[in-house]
Amino acid sequence: MKITFYGHACFGIEINGTNIIVDPFITGNPLAKDIDINSIKADYILVTHAHQDHVLDVEVLAERTGATIVSNYEIVMYYGAKELKGHPVNHGGTFKTEHFSAKYVNAIHTSSFADGSYGGQPGGFVITAGDKSLYIAGDTAVTMDMKLIPMTTKLTASVFPIGDNFTMGITDAIIASDLVECNSVIGCHFNTFPPIEIDVDNAKQQFSDAGKELSIIEIGASITI
Description:
alpha/beta
């Protein structure tokens, strides 16, 4: 899996030539001003929940690329009413393709669209391709439900929000990494807005002190797992 960070909680994941975009919020993020959204490839758009900082660019990407939107029933129906292609899942369910699977798992947060429409219950995704599995937690508090994930899946890496205030912060993200039994963590949902600004070096040190690795990917940069 090649993972590209597009800022905030938006990631591109390339798997055997298949392109996945998670929670596209690019054009509204000043930190991502150098990202050309028109150059982004997407076969699938995975949406964890309906907040604007996760869905702002869903429509423009889906319209240009013809990508399939994968999310909970309410979110897919919302975009379906706009004649965009989608596949609904719900918690515990798995979306399967030839190259990857994406299981929708629990998250503790809220979920509504900017126009006030109900966005269903929030979630995260466990994306698996071959012997690699990536857990994208979405916006969430640390939750004991995370303990269920390693019962069926050995994770290669986990993407956790670390900005606090609206989601879990560093201390709880370290606890979450214990619950999912994964010491390789990619940080997201930090520094975009003042309430979620953090000291990145201190965050990395806290993870290191706990025997874990926190990867902070520069916007536009990629890593491979």
